[in-house]
Design goal:
Blueprint lengths: L6 E5 L4 H12 L3 E6 L2 H13 L3 E6 L5 H15 L4 E4 L16 H29 L2 E6 L11 H21 L4 E8 L5 H7 L1 H14 L8 H12 L10 E4 L6
Parallel strand pairs: 1-2, 1-4, 2-3, 4-5, 5-6, 6-7
Helix pairs in contact: 1-2, 1-8, 3-4, 4-5, 6-7
The structure holds nicotinamide-adenine-dinucleotide.
Length: about 250
């Protein structure tokens, strides 16, 4: 098992990619803390983990709230006294398909708070635990649109910022044996899209997108979970400050 005896905090653990990642990490021996604003959803994921023989617990938190992030990490520190792995997955696009002229200040703030601020605050609090123990693996969720995307202006800006923030903490924390890397998936098949678009529009959109990717399909949540596992494991002990595109060759 590649994460035996590790404590891993996975945010967004109730969601499509987060739930796959939490289950994958538990199968690899980690004790997983499933952080999400959706406590019921995270509890269902924990039930699956336990059924599969894994261990973990749910931590309900709105990760855009500084106080809730600080409380989450201090409870975690009190309970375990350590934290080896942080995977920041919680996020989403709150202003999709807006034109330049339609960029909305409130939705922009939501995008920056949900994608960037939550990640920065979690890394800050994790660093306080990881530095003294001289070990840490941070994995942050960017997106292939870090390269830019018309129609996802403020979301892609937040995901580009995740990459530069990840590089900055990789430089700052390397001497404490802490690595920080970013994941950049292309389109991933998650229920949230099917719910938002409806099954027919989702099918048309995902098939058209898959046809443009060299590998001829979109990503599964497991494709992303396995990349997160790589960065979180000691196989990636000498890799830091990198972004890994999980894209089936899209935008090469
Ligand atoms: N699905 C894709 O195609 C895709 C592609 C690239 C990047 N991403 C990124 O992957 C991450 C996960 O996306 P997903 O597709 O699994 O979406 P999802 O909607 O299934 O999961 C997002 C999770 O974040 C949680 N969350 C939302 N607001 C929160 C808050 N304030 N505090 C705590 N938790 C909160 C939600 O409850 C949900 O469980 C996101 O950061 C997203 O931007 C997704």
């Amino acid at each position: 098992m590649r994460l035996a005896d590790k404590i891993a905090l996975v945010t967004g653990a109730a969601g499509g990619i987060g739930s796959s990642t939490a289950r994958c990490f538990a199968r690899e021996g980690a004790r997983v803390v499933l952080a999400d604003i959706d406590v019921e959803g995270a509890s269902r994921v924990l039930d699956q983990i336990v059924l599969e023989g894994g261990e973990g617990r749910v931590a309900g938190a709105d990760l855009t709230s500084e106080k809730e992030v600080v409380d989450l990490f201090s409870e975690l520190h009190e309970e375990f006294g350590r934290l080896e792995i942080l995977v920041n997955i919680a996020g989403g696009d709150f202003d999709p398909m807006a034109s330049v002229e339609e960029i909305d200040a409130e939705r922009m703030t939501r995008n920056l708070d949900m994608n960037l601020k939550s990640c920065v605050l979690c890394c800050r609090e994790a660093a306080k635990i990881m530095k003294p123990q001289r070990y840490g693996r941070m994995v942050n969720m960017s997106s292939l649109v870090w390269r830019g995307s018309p129609g996802q202006f403020t979301y892609s800006a937040s995901k580009g910022a995740i990459y530069s923030f990840t590089r900055s903490i990789a430089i700052a924390l390397g001497s404490s044996n802490i690595t920080a890397n970013a994941l950049a998936p292309a389109l991933v098949e998650v229920d949230a899209f099917v719910r938002a678009l409806g099954p027919e529009r989702w099918k048309a959109m995902s098939e058209a997108t898959a046809a443009r990717y060299p590998l001829g399909r979109i990503a599964t949540p497991d494709d992303v979970a396995k990349a997160a596992l790589f960065f979180a494991s000691d196989d990636a002990a000498f890799i830091t400050g990198q972004i890994l595109e999980i894209s089936g060759g899209a935008r090469l």
